[in-house]
Amino acid sequence: xxxxxxxxxxxxxxxxxxxxxxxxxxxxxxxxxxxxxxxxxxxxxxxxxxxxxxxxxxxxxxxxxxxxxxxxxxxxxxxxxxxxxxxxxxxxxxxxxxxxxxxxxxxxxxxxxxxxxxxxxxxxxxxxxxxxxxxxxxxxxxxxxxxxx
Length: 149
Fold this sequence. Notes:
Blueprint: H1 2-48, H2 55-80, H3 87-104, H4 109-131, H5 141-148
Helix pairs in contact: 1-2, 2-3, 3-4
């Protein structure tokens, strides 16, 4: 009797964690959506109220907008792809964040060079990912046998 209860609780635990994760991601998506709308308001403030010669601030806000957008897109993709985060989206976010850092903080040449090298590494990683197949690998026979027991 206790062995059956233990098996049920072991199978129930990942389901409960998955529901908790999904709930937290939905909350995060709403927060990011709010921040995305707030960034649109900032665009209008920069364009209409401030001197339009500050292109660095405007470009930094555009890249921040894309960061919010990419995170929301990644959450949507997570739910559409059966609870899987594609690695490509993390690379997109990393490249965008590094470009934003170069635009905003470009006073130190060594930092800019390091940020550029990070972008190069992320692009190489993206190239390597594109060489690999898009499908998930099949589970090995070892795992299938353990699940049957």
